[in-house]
Design brief:
heterodimer; A: 410 residues; alpha+beta; 6-stranded mixed beta barrel; 4-stranded antiparallel β-sheet; B: 438 residues; 12-stranded mixed β-sheet; 17 helices; elongated
Chain lengths: 410, 438
């Protein structure tokens, strides 16, 4: 294949070639980064929360209760659990202090040694008077669930009493006691002399924090067997049987209102909705980037088609002469495809540099992640392929030019 | 200059090659639409919500974190104040107005039996809240010094909540059960939605999604031991109970100081430093960390109200517009190069190079105008689509006159810049070569 004539022709006609190469470069720089960000966001939004059967779990927050003091509050909370458990279609009920992915709840500093000045980690604080692991399907990878003797009802307005035992997530156990078995070890809530110690009795595979942050920070959680009797509100979570979620929620609302003497405020939400809201921004960005990527490819393709068509029109006589001198259709086709490949390659090289440069900017200014090499390779292939497909139409038209054109003057 | 004639020529030439023209206008329109819609959102999000006051409204903060585990230079644990420090701001001898506030989520039992009880989100604030943030009143007014001192159970409602509870009647003087206590309505705020919600960024739905529906006195909320709805940061284990919370170093309150002029910022800084020094003598503020004072723009920047994702979108849109520009240059080049014979004839008939240049530049301007029109329609569509996604975005996805004009100007300018090279090429055509048979 004669490269030199093609190169010579290109050098004489630099402007058009440069324009196409620049378009390919800009597209590729943006596309490589865009696809990378889409993947990262998708991965973040797909992380499991720890709740095994998310589609069939919901929670309800009941407010404005316990006006008569801690004993009444405790009695009401117990009654609500009974009410919820008695609804048909319910597989499990638990009272719990907060829910993952809701951005609502509290965390504590945790440490492994009372002499520490810095925390080991900041962990979410899930409180429950029982049945939480079963209701949410949390998998125990070591140790045991809570036993009846572990649970405490605490009025934190009058006492500093706390739990003796705690269940932690595997991520937190690995952070606090790397490489060791965490069961039986002592951990501290808080740091320093006033820190409260607790014994780890169980490790669950996964339970995200209420904020579900990106990275390990979103996986540090503690579960304690405490029910507070002085908060004035309570959260309950229910695992319904498949297909019964909506009906169970409706029945639950009616039953709860009937069970309380004073007007209560209830807020129901499914875990599916919670997940959607937590990752709404990430998914929106991902969709926007996908749309932009498709548009980028379309516009670049249209640019290639436009420029190639122009060249075919400008060189009609030349092509006719070549055909008259003996060139076959496939030779003309190959000429244009090779020419386009050279231009696209220039664009791809510039695009790789552009993608890396753009990524540096994003990492420095907007706290994004580094671009893996795979995206540059993939991007190059995508644009080479795009070039070939885009130029095929005009190239075929060129190949169909009749040799008789060589003898005409116009 | 034959502007009108060239304009007509431009329009006519658009029709000559409809496919190419359509492609050009579409490409330009998409690029413009992408840029304008993301810029609109950025524009609203980063707008100054209270321009005539934003440089003399300050958030004064001390760092009351524990010294254990602290290295000088570490970021503070929270951007709010403890009860003790908040009260100190309230009593400070600086500024025209001082406000302390925290978010609450009280339950409301409506006089209307059919509504039952429901929760709302609101703010417990001292009396100067309304004057400082210039809230418009529909009925009644805020409360005064006496109510603040007594912790009186008075309440101001937002317009939507008042209409929900009382319809169109003036509810001032009516009684309402809030958090189980009897409150008297003293005022109703007219529709008030500053964007971003700069006075209540932390918690409660954030700077764009949240809605404050009730306002009651800070001292009344404290008197009833009302919990916070928002964020609280506690680094030391305090005494149990509400009184323990008030005595302790948990931070959960937002303080504000308004001065008469921007220059009085130094007075606020001086007072804060003085106060911190006094507190250190009493054994508090062991970290000895620098105190912070933010005015409104600094506060918005510090709290990252315009998030990274929005900036990413804006940069992406510009990159996209750049691509569309280069693409348009290519298409215009193609379009103009087939017109070489026409240029040759015009030049032979006496047109100067400059006149050819103006003719073709105006033609690109026409393309720009058409692209701008289509781009505007696409941008409005894109904004509407984005608004569907979330409350946050729908609050800011509105185009104002500035952005509208900007769309057209950007489109025409972009087309003309793209057209410079092809137009210059077009003028270089030598008439003699074109007049010969090809």
């Amino acid at each position: 294949m004669e490269i030199r004539p093609i190169l010579a022709a290109l050098l004489r006609n630099k402007t058009g070639a440069i324009l196409v190469a620049v378009q390919v470069a800009i597209s590729m720089a943006i596309l490589a980064n865009a696809l990378h960000i889409v993947n990262v966001r998708q991965a973040v939004a797909a992380r499991p929360s720890g709740i095994a059967d998310e589609h069939n779990v919901f929670f309800v927050n009941i407010d404005s209760i316990g006006k008569g003091g801690p004993e009444q509050h405790l009695a009401e909370q117990k009654r609500f659990i009974d009410v919820l458990s008695s609804i048909s279609g319910v597989q499990g009920v638990a009272q719990v202090g907060q829910i993952p992915m809701t951005n609502n709840g509290s965390t504590n500093s945790v440490a492994v040694d009372r002499k520490q000045t810095n925390e080991t980690a900041n962990a979410a604080f899930y409180t429950t008077p029982g049945n939480l692991l079963k209701t949410w399907g949390l998998k125990l990878v070591a140790g045991r669930d809570f036993q009846p003797g572990d649970f405490k009802d605490i009025d934190s307005d009058t006492t500093k009493d706390f739990t003796d035992v705690v269940i932690v997530t595997k991520a937190l156990a690995d952070k606090m006691f790397p490489g060791q078995d965490a069961i039986g070890k002592t951990m501290f809530f808080g740091t320093g002399e006033e820190a409260i110690q607790s014994r780890i009795v169980g490790v669950v595979e996964r339970l995200q924090t209420q904020n579900a942050q990106v990275g390990d920070r979103g996986e540090y959680s503690t579960i304690v067997p405490i029910r507070f009797t002085n908060l004035g509100w309570a959260n309950f979570t229910v695992h319904a049987e498949p297909g019964q979620l909506d009906r169970v929620m409706k029945d639950a609302e009616q039953a709860l209102r009937k069970a309380s003497a004073t007007p209560i405020i209830t807020e129901f939400k499914t875990i599916d909705e919670t997940r959607k809201e937590r990752y709404r921004a990430d998914m929106a960005m991902a969709w926007m980037l996908v749309t932009v990527s498709v548009l980028l490819l379309l516009i670049t393709a249209s640019g290639i088609v436009g420029m190639a068509s122009l060249w075919v029109t400008q060189r009609r006589k030349q092509i006719g002469v070549r055909r008259a001198l003996g060139a076959r259709k496939v030779d003309i086709l190959r000429y244009f495809i090779t020419e386009n490949f050279m231009i696209t390659s220039m664009g791809v090289v510039a695009g790789v540099l552009g993608a890396v440069g753009l990524n540096q900017f994003l990492v420095a200014q907007l706290e994004m992640a580094r671009l893996p090499l795979g995206y540059l390779v993939a991007g190059s292939f995508i644009f080479w392929l795009l070039g070939v497909f885009a130029v095929y139409g005009p190239a075929w038209r060129a190949a169909s030019i009749s040799p008789a054109l060589a003898t005409r003057t116009a | 200059m034959m502007f009108a004639y060239y304009f007509k020529l431009g329009v006519r030439s658009l029709r000559r090659n409809p496919a190419l023209t359509a492609l050009m206008i579409l490409t330009l329109a998409i690029g413009v639409a992408a840029s304008v819609s993301t810029l609109t959102i950025l524009h609203v999000m980063s707008g100054d919500p209270i321009p005539h006051k934003s440089d003399r409204l300050f958030v004064p903060l001390v760092d009351n974190g524990p010294i254990k585990g602290y290295t000088p230079g570490d970021k503070p644990d929270d951007d709010q104040a403890s009860y003790r420090d908040a009260l100190a701001v309230l009593k400070a001898p600086v500024g025209e107005r001082r406000v302390v506030m925290y978010g609450i989520g009280p339950s409301i039992e409506s006089p209307r039996k059919d509504l039952g009880a429901f929760s709302v989100s609101g703010i417990a604030a001292s009396k100067d809240f309304f004057g400082m943030f210039e809230t418009p009143f529909l009925y009644g007014q805020g409360w005064g010094d006496a109510e603040d001192k007594a912790g009186a159970d008075v309440i101001v409602l937002a317009r939507k909540l008042a209409e929900k509870l009382y319809g169109n009647a003036n509810p001032v003087g009516q009684h309402l059960r809030v958090m189980g206590y009897d409150y008297q309505v003293v005022g109703v705020l007219d529709t008030w939605k500053p964007l971003p919600r700069y006075y209540h960024i932390i918690g409660g739905g954030g700077s764009f999604g949240g809605n404050d529906e009730v306002f009651l006195p800070f001292s009344s909320a404290i008197r009833h031991e009302t919990g916070h709805s928002g964020s609280m940061n506690c680094t030391a284990r305090g005494e149990p109970g509400y009184q323990g919370l008030l005595n302790g170093e948990c931070t959960w309150i937002q303080p504000w100081i308004e001065t008469r002029t921007a220059a009085e910022r130094s007075d606020v800084v001086a007072w804060l430093d003085n106060y911190a020094a006094e507190q250190r003598k009493l054994g508090r503020l062991k970290r000895n960390a620098p105190n912070r004072v933010y005015n409104v723009p600094e506060w918005l920047e510090f709290r990252k109200v315009v998030g990274n994702d929005n900036k990413l979108s804006a940069w992406l849109a510009f990159g996209f517009l750049l691509l569309c520009l280069v693409n348009t240059i290519g298409l215009l080049l193609a379009k103009f190069s087939v017109r070489a014979p026409e240029v040759g004839i015009r030049r032979a008939l006496g047109a100067s190079r400059r006149e050819i240049f103006s003719q073709f530049l105006i033609e690109t301007g026409v393309v720009g105008l058409a692209g701008g029109l289509l781009g505007l329609v696409l941008a409005l569509g894109a904004l509407a689509l984005m608004a569907l996604q979330s409350n946050r975005i729908s609050a800011v996805a509105h185009m104002d006159w500035v952005m509208l004009l900007f769309t057209f100007v950007m489109s025409v300018l972009a087309a003309m810049v793209a057209g410079l090279l092809p137009t210059w090429r077009a003028c270089q055509v030598t008439p003699a070569l074109q007049l010969k048979s090809q």
